[in-house]
Structures are given as C-alpha cells and as structure tokens.
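Re-running MFS general substrate transporter to confirm reproducibility after the cluster update. Everything else is unchanged from the original entry.
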Amino acid sequence: MYDLTPVPSVLTPSVRSAGEVEYSRKYVRNGWIHFAALCWCFFLQGWNDGTTGPLIPAIQEHYHVGFAVVSLIFVTNCIGYLSGAFANVILNDKLGFGKVVVLGSVCQIVTYAIQAPAPPFPVLVCAYAIAGFGISLQNAQANGFVGSLKDHVAAKLCILHGSYGVGAFAAPLVATHFSQTRHWSFHFLISIGIALTNTIVLTSVFRLKTQDEVMAEAGHGPGEVGGSAQSNLYREILGLKALHFMAIFSLIYVGVEVTLGGWIVTYIIQKRHGGPSSGYISSGFFGGLTVGRIALIWINRKVGERRIIFIYAALAIGLEVTIWLVPNLYENAVAVSFIGLLLGPMYPILVDHATKILPRWLLTGCVGWIAGFGQAGSAVLPFITGVLSAKYGIGSLQPFMVAMMATMIGLWAVVPKAQRRVD
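Result of re-run:
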C-alpha cells in the first residue's frame, strides 16, 4: 500500500513569491510606460505654445498685419480651449480616457497640416481654434489621470509639467530659425511629425481604453465614483466654489506664462534692439520653467506648497520690474530666465492642491475645467497684450505682467487651504 497523503511542496511559497514579484514588476513597468506617453503628450503641448512667440514677427510681415490683428490667433485659440474644457466633461463620460486623448492629438495634426502651407490669414487664425480644442482635451485627461494615481502624485505632476517646459524650450530654438527664412511656415512640418508620433504613442499605449482599464494594467483599482447615474456632471462640477478660484488662478497664471514667453521676443527686439535672434530668449524663459518644475520640488515640500507660491510670485514681480526699468539686453535676458524658474512650479502645485480638496469622482472633469480655463488664459492675456501694444506700444507688456502677477497673489490667498472631500 502506498501512502497517498499529499506532501506539501516546499517550492510553492517561492514560486508564488516569484509570480507576485513578476506581476509587481509588470505593473510598475506599465505605470511608467503610461506616464512616459503622457509626458510626450505634454512635450507637444509645450512645443505648440513655444512656437507662437518667435513666429509673430514673421506672421506680421507675411500677412502685413499689426499687433491687434495678429492677436486674433489668441482669440480663436481661446475659443478652442474653452470649448475643449466644456466638451471634455461629456466626452470623458461618453468615450473614456483613451479615445479622448487620441482625439485631441488628431486635432493637432489637422491644425499643423493647415498651417504648414501658410494659408490665408483667416484660415490660419481658425486653425488655432482646432489646436486649442485638442490641447484642452489632452491637458485635462493627462492631469486627471496623473492626479488620480496613488503614489508620488506631486512629484509626477512636476515631471509631467516639466515635459511641457522641455517642449516649450525646444520650440523657439527651431521657430527662431524658420522665422528668419522665406518659408517660415515650414516650421509646422516639424510640428506635424511630432503630432503624428504623439498620436501613435497614445494609441498604442492606451489602446482607446477607459481610465479604469488603463489603471488596472498598472495595478491600480478602479477610480472612485459618486453621485447617481442621472446626476448632472456640469452642475456638480460648477457648483464647487473652490474650483472657480483655482480656475481663475489658472487662467491668470498660464496667461502670464505664455504672454511673457511669447511677447518678450517682440519686446526685446523693439525696446532693447535685440535683433532677429531674440527668439532664443523665449527658450531661456521656458528652460527656466522646466528647471523650476523639477529642481525646486524639495524646496516646495520644505517650505510648504501653499506658502511657497506667495514667495515665488513676489520674487517674480521684483524681477519683472527690473525688465521694465533696466534698459539692458543681457540683464533682461537673465531676468526672464529666472522668472521662468520661479513660475515653473506653480501650475503643478495648483493641480496637486486640486487633487487634495476636490471630490475624486469629479477630479478629471474638475481638472479639465481648471486646465481649460488656464489654456484660455494663454489666449486671453496675449490678446490683451496685443491690443495694449497697438495702442500704447510694446512697452506696456511689463506693467501688465506686474499687475497680473499681483492678481495671482490675491487669488491664491482666497483658494481654500482644505476642504472636506465626500468620496
């Protein structure tokens, strides 16, 4: 007779442990692939925003338009951003994360394909609306996705927005070269190439899946949901008082960032006689922005993310005053770079703060609204700058920037420190 009693296998614990380790590694690898894809998406957004400033003089010369008329590109851009922020709420609910980000990326391909042959000015202007719509969708989805992660959210947001800074730093280096050539609009051929790779990456990595399905691939549980199926998402989101303070802060902040990074080129050329290579100063600004978002993470944590914004804004105002009052090209160029350094961490801090005080089940929609308003600021404030410049000269840029930075301080003071989250 044989003893058929099962003998415990000494290999079972180790095999199970190895399997768990393998699954853990797979989750971590998938998480980083997702994050890298979103960083590339933000690189393209930065590339888009960093392109405009150096090309403004070439656009004015080609179409024979003044400051006020050329600023219409910011108006249509604003329309695109706001419509994208509004549409994102319902599109996220109906289509899901993966399809919405790819749709946004395709919009950018369409935009650059229209812009590359230097079409009639009204067509060029309308193309900016398509770009604004697409960027608004991608911005909202990426911020909402990273903000919903469980670990290291603040650091990942800084890196994500640092990727935007890298794109905004690189674009003026290329756009400045094209602005000095006959075929200045061929810069957008490079933009098409980057947008195509962005669409391919987003499609292959996320495969048009919902956010919960994508997060499951990285070992995260499904997102938290609240409210009834019949609840009005717009009413719930727009009923949050804290959301509106952060959205207006975002509008002013992004407006200052894009206005200074763009119009500073024209300012340096006309007021400091910087010459056609002044477009590289825009790269210095966005380079500072990138460094600030990554290198100052530890300072933000040590001082406190709420308090540090007041400090950064006050120092940026001081440097802006020196650009206004000190007629020295080199001092102005250095000051612009340091302003970028100080402004850099503010937006990631804002988004991280939103993830802490807003309901999680509404987070993607809320962050989309904040981001959409912010992107609208990147159109509204540059347009106002163009109108002021048409009437008072480009010298009005600096006092306008000082006033807007002071407004940011006031807005941040009324943003709630904390709020009970009913998850």
